[in-house]
Amino acid sequence: MHRKDSKIRRHQLWGLIFISPWIIGFAIFQLFPLLDSLYYSFTNYNPLKGCRFIGIDNYVKMFCKDNKVIPSMLTTLLYVLMSVPAKILSALLIALLLNRKIRGIHLFRTVYYLPSIFGGSVAISILWRFLFKSDGVVNHILEFFHIAGPNWLGSPKTALLTVSLVSVWQFGSSMVLFLAGLKQIPAEMYESARVDGSTSWKSFFKITLPFLSPVIFFNLLMQLINAFQEFTLPFVITNGGPANATYLYSMMIYDNAFQYLNMGYASAESWVLFLIMAAVTAVIFKSSSVWVFYKDGA
Question: Is the bond preceding 85 in cis, omega lying within 30 degrees of 0?
Fold first, then answer.
């Protein structure tokens, strides 16, 4: 028994040795900055003037004195509500269309995935700004059909929607996950449903969606987290304008940290964002027991 325990401990030691580079990297580049920012959130920290502990003053200022916080939070929430559901629905629809055995299907899958390779890059943002400016390509196409295109990026009514379309367009990663989930659904389930006289729509809601619910759950979590932290797209495309219509919460954190060098206040804002995302994640996890179905019956 003693020899067996010694062997297990030896294996555990070797396991720790092999993962030690990741542990060290996590501690230095993630855990330490996380705890450091928590401390700075209770200080008045300017890299050029030093650091002074001020307690919860930063948090009081956020919700009682700073008139930019609540509007930027609401704009971010609106961006999340516009981009995440549309992105997941688009990814699911395209995955259903690409889950077919037709000639050239691999080419179609590659083409649909390509936009996601670029991510929220500066190049894509500049391209989007060029396409949707008042005299851009999109409005020229609409003009060809005698349709007066709006000022997509210059109007507060359409600017946020236009920016969110970039995220929706880059649905490739979610699409691949949905496609993998569709491949795991047993064909016998659909055959049995057809024998019982089930329609395609009924099979979709009774078979496809339940089997895809874990993938929907994962995609929803990841896309929500990404959307709450979105920065590059509105920063490059509109720089928060017009009239702060695309001024997301992450942009406010950036301005306070790197424009005004108020690192303590920016750290407090970052922690509020972290707590909001944690709360949303907790709610989704709690609700998953109602709508997420697993093959083992859980």
Answer: no
Q: Which amino acid makes up residue 53?
A: F
Q: Round the CA-based radius of gyration of the chain to a whole number and report it.
A: 24
Please give the chain's pLDDT, 298 residues, in tens: 566 677 778 888 888 899 999 999 999 999 999 999 999 999 999 998 889 999 999 999 999 999 999 999 999 999 999 999 999 999 999 999 998 888 888 888 888 888 888 766 788 888 899 999 888 899 999 998 888 889 999 999 999 999 999 999 999 999 999 999 999 988 888 888 888 888 888 989 989 999 999 999 999 999 999 999 999 999 999 999 999 999 999 999 999 999 999 999 999 999 999 999 999 999 999 999 999 988 765 5
| Element housing 53 (H / E) | strand 50-53
Provide the phi-psi class of 233: left if phi over 0, else alpha when psi is between -120 and 50, else beta.
alpha
16 sits in which H/E element = helix 2-26
Question: CA 272 to CA 268: how far, in whole Å?
Answer: 6
Which amino acid belongs to residue 197?
G
Closest CA to 228 of 274, 268, 289: 274
Mapped onto helix, strand or coil, the DSSP state of residue 46 is: strand
CB-count burial class (<10 Å; 0-12, 13-18, 19+) for 147: exposed
Angle between helix 263-291 and helix 57-64 axes, rounded to 10 deg: 70
